[in-house]
Specification:
- This is Thiopeptide-type bacteriocin biosynthesis domain-containing protein.
- This protein is of the alpha+beta class and 410 residues long.
- It has two domains: 32-46 and 205-402, no CATH class; 74-199, Alpha-Beta Plaits (2-Layer Sandwich).
- It is built from eleven helices and ten strands.
- The strands form four sheets. The protein has a four-stranded antiparallel beta sheet with strand order 6-7-5-8. A two-stranded antiparallel ribbon has the order 1-4. A two-stranded antiparallel ribbon has the order 2-3.
- A hairpin with a 6-residue loop joins β9 (349-351) and β10 (358-360).
- The protein is globular.
């Protein structure tokens, strides 16, 4: 069967790196062959910054907004116009570790987002109503200390990034809802850099399959967040080839676990690329011919590696993979099994494409690609992979699957 990549329409993705003085500049990077990080990848050409969101923007909380019920998720948005790696490693990681050690939280995750300025959205779930106030206090204390010690020096109130964000804003918010986020000139309002804000937590029930699907996504997001923070700590993800190689391997494992037929997976990856290509018409954000030119440099090693990963996931043998991927493969297999059960039990309810009705999906073959798209995308979001690079990886992985290395069967 042909599987589309569409979960639900969205423009969510990773953030730029304004701290570098450019918008995730992507010059040509030579492919150097396989490394300990996996096969090196030639980078997608040109320059691009992505929008970003895991939940969709939702209404702005006013001064009279009701506080979240004690024990529910707490959401803190930290506006930080620089690469979030230092914040994640020096602030959020020790904060979460301390809260977990003291039994104060039962879940957490983070995403990168762009609306009203680049920021990290931190989600913490207090373990009880009694723990909620202490979780909030420790969060505010840790974030304030970090912003004081290591403020972001870049500002996005003028120049390329501000213009770019407004282009994204015009694409994603063409209607009346943009009024929540605009200034007197009709441009996207920017929150103060190096600031934090407690906000409502508003899950995208329509995208993830209703309450049961959101609960599953939250469980998965915790694992994905832990994985990414650990990768930031142990891998040279500041090197673009390493970042893209890591992303490609995680995409291989997750997509290969969810969709086990070769033709089905190749069609899915094609449609995943096509979705992002169509999401930004007339912008040139997502390439085509240049992707094919870069593919030739990496094709042999990439195809061979994808073949090995596919075989391990198909055989249920994660131990054949490097330890970093083995744990991810085990998690993805459990995630898939839980999603299949929810579908079979009739617990997954998605919002229709036109937003007019709910659709209960009971066939796992239909539910799995709907969930795979946001799952895979949000891991790339956490890695700080741009939409351009993500679309590029989907394109080259599809080609690698259709054109396996000489002498190796797919």
């Amino acid at each position: 069967m042909t599987t589309t990549a569409a979960g639900r329409p969205t423009a969510d993705s990773a953030q730029p790196d304004p701290g570098s003085g450019s918008a995730s500049a992507t010059g040509p990077v030579a492919a150097s062959g396989p490394t300990a990080e996996g096969p090196a990848l030639t980078e997608a050409p040109s320059v691009v910054v992505d929008p970003g969101a895991a939940e969709g923007p939702g209404p702005v909380a006013g001064p009279d907004a009701a506080p979240a019920a004690a024990g529910d998720w707490q959401a803190t948005h930290v506006f930080y116009a620089a690469n979030p790696r230092p914040m994640l490693l020096r602030c959020i990681r020790p904060l979460v570790a301390g809260l977990e050690a003291d039994g104060l939280i039962s879940g957490w995750f983070f995403i990168n987002y762009w609306l009203e300025g680049p920021h990290v959205r931190l989600r913490l779930k207090p373990s009880s109503a009694r723990a909620a106030a202490e979780v909030r206090r420790r969060t505010e204390e840790a974030v304030d200390a970090f912003l004081t010690d290591r403020p972001a020096l870049y500002e996005v109130d003028s120049g390329f990034l501000n213009d770019f964000y407004n282009t994204l804003f015009d694409i994603e918010f063409p209607g009346a809802e943009r009024g929540h986020y605009t200034d007197a000139q009709g441009r996207m309002r920017l929150r103060p850099n190096n600031s934090r804000s407690a906000e409502p937590y508003e899950p995208e029930y329509g995208k993830y399959g209703g309450p049961a699907g959101v609960a599953l996504a939250e469980w998965h997001f915790r694992h994905s967040s832990d994985l990414v923070v650990d990768a930031l700590r142990t891998k040279n993800l500041h090197l673009r080839t390493v970042l893209l190689g890591t992303s490609a391997q995680l995409m291989m494992v997750m997509s290969g676990t969810f969709l086990r037929g070769d033709a089905e997976l190749a069609d899915y990856l094609d449609s995943y690329y096509t979705f992002w290509h169509r999401a930004f018409p007339g912008t040139g954000f997502i390439g085509s011919e240049e992707y094919d030119r870069n593919y030739a440099a990496m094709a042999p090693s990439l195809a061979a590696h994808f073949t090995r990963v596919r075989a391990a996931t198909r055989d249920g043998a994660p131990g054949r993979l490097p330890s970093f991927l083995a744990g991810w493969a085990e998690h993805c297999a459990e995630l898939r099994a839980r999603a299949v059960k929810l579908a079979g039990d009739g617990d997954l309810v998605f919002r229709s494409w036109d937003g007019e009705r709910d659709e209960r999906v009971t066939d796992p073959a239909a539910a799995l690609p709907l969930l795979l798209s946001p799952y895979m995308h949000m891991t790339n979001n956490r890695l700080h992979v741009t939409i351009r690079d993500e679309a590029y990886l989907a394109h080259v992985l599809s080609r690698a699957l259709r054109e396996p290395a000489d002498g190796e069967a797919p």
